[in-house]
Amino acid sequence: MAEVRAVAVIGAGTTGRGIAHLAALGGYRTILEDILPASLRKAESEIRSYLDQAIEQGKIRKEDAEAAFARLEYAATVEEAARQADLVIEAVPDELESKLEIFILLDKICKPDTILASNSASLSICEIASVTYRASKCVGMRFFEQQVELVRTPETDDATIAACSEVGRRMGKEVMVTEARHPSKSLNHSVAKPQPKPFTGEDAKDAKVTE
Questions:
Q1: Looking at the whole model, is its pTM more than 0.85?
Q2: Cβ count near 108 (within 10 Å)
Q3: Are 4 and 170 in contact (CB under 8 A)?
Q4: What is the pLDDT of residues 17-36, one digit of tens each?
Q5: Which of 8, 52, 119, 129 lies at a 20 to 30 A Cα distance from 86?
């Protein structure tokens, strides 16, 4: 299993900054990207606020919060954020064309063994992965309040699932693995079942350091 040391998060909206917060708490070098400087400034401010609240509430030690904050970096372009990442988590709005463009770019600029994950709640990870030359390294990575769901395509390899499972655990999440069986459908499940409570990004403020 390839070791993940650096995580890039594409999109600094509520969900993206929440994922970045969890990654930093999990011990990863974390690069958060957004083309809007105001979004990056807001993300930095809110993550700092969440960490301060966690210290006050006794959820984490001050030194752990400071270490997590120091692991966070900010980038204005996808290229800057993703070139050295071992895992890239795309967290932009659910618009297929935008996600396809991002994955095409990521496939070109990332290291050959970099894992590409999409946080899409409604689009087919099979379709998204199909525009890359690394389908075995593509996976859906859906965040919920208590869980992270890894959605594997028929091409996703076991090493990718193992690496992302470790990331999820270090983020303090229970890891679920499901299969996207039909590329024509969105994040399919063979049996319909109640979905966990969605991750809003705000949930990250309650996260604790994972030893």
A1: yes
A2: 10
A3: no
A4: 999 999 999 999 999 999 99
A5: 52
At 143 the three-state DSSP class reads strand
**2: pLDDT confidence band, cut at 50, 70 and 90?**
confident
**194, two tokens:** 């109640």
CA dist., res. 168 & res. 62, Å (int): 23
Q: Is residue 110 a contact partner of residue 96, using CB atoms and an 8 Å limit?
A: no
Domain 6-206, CATH number (from 1.20.1600.10, 3.40.50.1370, 3.30.470.20, 3.40.50.720): 3.40.50.720
Q: What is the DSSP string of 63-126?
A: HHHHHHHHTEEEESSHHHHHTT-SEEEE-S-S-HHHHHHHHHHHHHHS-TT-EEEE--SSS-HH
Instruction: Determine the residue type at 94.
Output: D
